[in-house]
C-alpha cells in the first residue's frame, strides 16, 4: 500500500473516469483525491457517504472534507445526532475564529506564569523545572492555573507573588491584544483602585481559593471596603460595554 500525495497527479488526469479511479484504489493506493473524485461520480447517497468517509479518514485535518462527509452522513440519515453535533461544533469554531481575528491578533506567544514568576525572582529556574516535571508526572492539565496551585501547595510562592505574576501576565496579554482587558485591570486604569490594591485583592482571592472559597473580584472589593457595591456595579457595567464595543 502506498499513500498518494495531495493533489494526486493520477486523479487529476482521470477525475471523471470512474473505472480508472476504481482501478487506482484497487491497486492499493491510499488516495484522498481518488475517494473525493469517486464521491462526485457515484449516484447513490450512501456510496457518496462511504467515499467521503474514506477520504476523511485519510485526511483527518481537512476541515472542508470533514464538513462534506458529515453533510453526506446527514443526507443518508437525517437524524444522525453525532454528525449534526460535529457540524455545529465546526461551524461554531469557525464563527469564533472569525470574531476573534480583528481584535485578538495572533501575537508572539504570551509568557506563561512560570516564566513570569522566574523573571520576578519569586522562584528559581530549577524550582520551576522541578514543579513542571512533577506536573507532567502527575499528568495534570498543563495549565497556568495548575502550576500556580502546585507552587502554592508546595509553599514555593506566596499568594501575593502569584497575584503579582498574574497581573503582569494579564497586562502583557492585553497589551499584545491576545486577551481582552480584565475587570481588575480596567478598575486600575480608570482609577477606581490602585495597582497595589488590585494585587491585595487578587492575593486574598487566591488565599480564599486555597481554602475552597470562591469569591468574585467584585465581592472581594466590597468585602475589603475598597469600593462600594454601587461603584462595583457601575464599573462592571462600564467595563462590559467597553468590552462588547470592541467587537462591533
Ligand atoms: Zn492517487
Brief descriptors of the model:
2 strands; single chain; two-stranded parallel sheet; 14 helices; binds zinc ion; Serine Threonine Protein Phosphatase 5, Tetratricopeptide repeat; 248 residues; mainly alpha
Give the strand line-up of the largest sheet: 1-2
* Average pLDDT score: 82
Helical/strand content category: mainly alpha
Output the number of helix runs. 14
Instruction: Compute the number of structural domains.
Output: 2
The major β-sheet equals: 2 strands, parallel
- Count the beta strands: 2
Strand content: under 5%
Shape: elongated
Return residue spans where pLDDT drops below 50 for at least 5 consecutive residues.
Answer: 99-106
C-alpha Rg, in Å?
27 Å
Helix percent reads: 55-70%
Bound molecules: zinc ion
Q: N-to-C terminal Cα separation, in Å?
A: 52 Å
What's the order of the H and E elements? EHHEHHHHHHHHHHHH
Describe the structure.
By secondary structure, this protein is mostly helical. It has two domains: 2-98, Serine Threonine Protein Phosphatase 5, Tetratricopeptide repeat; 113-245, no CATH class. The chain is 69% helix and 2% strand. It contains 14 helices and two strands. The chain has helices spanning 9-14, 18-26, 32-41, 45-58, 63-76, 81-103, 113-119, 125-137, 144-153, 159-175, 183-189, 195-210, 217-223, 229-245; strands spanning 2-3, 29-30. A two-stranded parallel sheet has the order 1-2. Helix 2 packs antiparallel against helix 3 and helix 13 packs antiparallel against helix 14. Mean pLDDT is 82; it is low at 99-106. Zinc ion (ZN) binds at residues 4, 8, 10-11, 24, 29, 31, 33-34.
Amino acid at each position: 500500500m502506498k499513500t498518494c500525495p495531495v493533489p494526486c497527479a493520477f486523479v487529476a488526469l482521470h477525475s471523471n473516469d470512474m473505472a480508472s479511479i476504481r482501478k487506482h484504489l484497487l491497486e492499493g493506493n491510499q488516495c484522498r483525491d481518488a475517494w473525493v473524485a469517486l464521491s462526485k461520480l457515484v449516484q447513490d447517497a450512501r456510496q457518496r457517504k462511504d467515499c467521503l468517509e474514506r477520504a476523511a479518514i485519510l485526511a483527518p485535518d481537512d476541515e472542508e472534507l470533514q464538513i462534506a462527509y458529515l453533510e453526506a452522513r446527514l443526507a443518508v440519515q437525517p437524524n444522525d445526532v453525532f454528525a449534526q453535533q460535529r457540524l455545529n461544533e465546526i461551524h461554531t469554531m469557525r464563527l469564533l475564529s472569525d470574531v476573534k481575528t480583528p481584535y485578538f491578533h495572533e501575537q508572539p506567544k504570551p509568557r506563561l506564569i512560570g516564566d513570569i514568576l522566574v523573571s520576578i525572582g519569586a522562584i528559581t529556574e530549577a524550582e520551576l523545572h522541578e514543579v513542571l516535571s512533577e506536573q507532567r508526572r502527575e499528568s495534570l492539565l498543563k495549565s497556568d492555573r495548575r502550576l500556580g496551585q502546585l507552587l502554592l501547595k508546595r509553599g514555593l510562592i506566596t499568594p501575593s507573588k502569584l497575584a503579582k505574576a498574574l497581573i503582569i501576565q494579564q497586562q502583557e496579554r492585553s497589551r499584545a491584544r491576545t486577551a481582552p482587558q480584565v475587570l481588575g485591570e480596567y478598575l486600575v486604569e480608570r482609577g477606581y483602585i490602585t495597582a497595589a490594591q488590585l494585587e491585595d485583592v487578587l492575593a486574598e482571592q487566591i488565599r480564599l481559593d486555597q481554602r475552597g472559597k470562591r469569591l468574585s473580584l467584585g465581592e472581594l472589593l466590597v468585602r475589603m471596603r475598597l469600593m462600594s457595591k454601587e461603584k462595583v456595579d457601575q464599573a462592571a457595567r462600564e467595563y462590559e460595554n467597553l468590552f462588547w464595543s470592541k467587537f462591533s
